[in-house]
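Researcher: Next entry in the queue.
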Amino acid sequence: MLLREERDVEMKLRLVIGCRLTLLVLLIMGTPAWAEWKVEGEGNVFYTDDVALFSASQRLSLQEDPTQPVIDTTDQGDDVVFEPAISLGRSFQPSWGDVELTVRAQGYVFADHSEFNHGTYGAQITQALPAETLLRLRYHYGPNLFVGKNREKRTGNELLVEERVTTHFGTAELEHDVRETLMVRLLGRYGHRSYNQVFKQRDTNFWTVGTHAIWEIIPGVELVLGYHYERTLADGRKRPELEDDISSFIHYVVAELEVEVTEKTAVKLAFDFERTNYTTGIPDDERRDGSENIYQGEIEVRHAIHENIDLLVAYLRGQRKFSFEDRQAIINTVWIGSAFRF
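Model: Structure for this entry, 342 residues:
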């Protein structure tokens, strides 16, 4: 209990310190420097009926971390979740082309299930290249994410203990305007997920390749299509006695349609599908010849109340099922929030 309280305090301190540092930087900059800096942020309040799936469902996105860690334990109860997020960017104009640097901090704070509290941090550099092309490099750090309580296999007693994972990955994107209404992006990433000691066999290296297309069909109507292919290799493949190899091939597909209903109001519809094929060759591993399918749909309405401030309401429904289990896991989430930019 004491360790859990210490983690909660540490999480809240990180969020508070991050926000205060950002505000301090802005104060130091003063008014003349506003033109060189960009600040964006969000504040959202969610209600979700499954805290175990909440983070994974929110990160099922092209620009996030769609291939989240394996989640064995679901249906862990409902909760209200608060999300603060802020990013700070600055543009430069060196002789070799425009450059923008951005840092970002984001967190989820759960009202009742505080063990799920966590934050993510990132940095990004975007370089303008000739011929309407951009090169973007990103780094993502997600420390000590509580996945849920799971049965460990290292002691042979199958004790129910906390499963936690820390994620690092780097992404490179090459973005090109094929024509005025069509942009194509190529993506590659490499990363590592590191688990707490009792689940070290799940430590995983992964690499991803993908392509995205953003098409303005007509003014005010935009279609986004994307596909990722990912290969994961877990340490469990070298420990057959544990029968816990989560290595896999993953296919991820997304389609988003955004329509400007009025000058200030837009509606976005999104659908995500993810297929995981497990590649373990361990005879008694339950994932041998197994797979998992994830389906997720989302609707979001965004309304501009000011030139720099938007309000939004949204609803998400997702379902996932392992081929070797009879039941499927379902999550419903609704939220309201605001986004600002300066």
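Model: The chain is about 10% helix and 60% strand.
Researcher: Noted, moving on.
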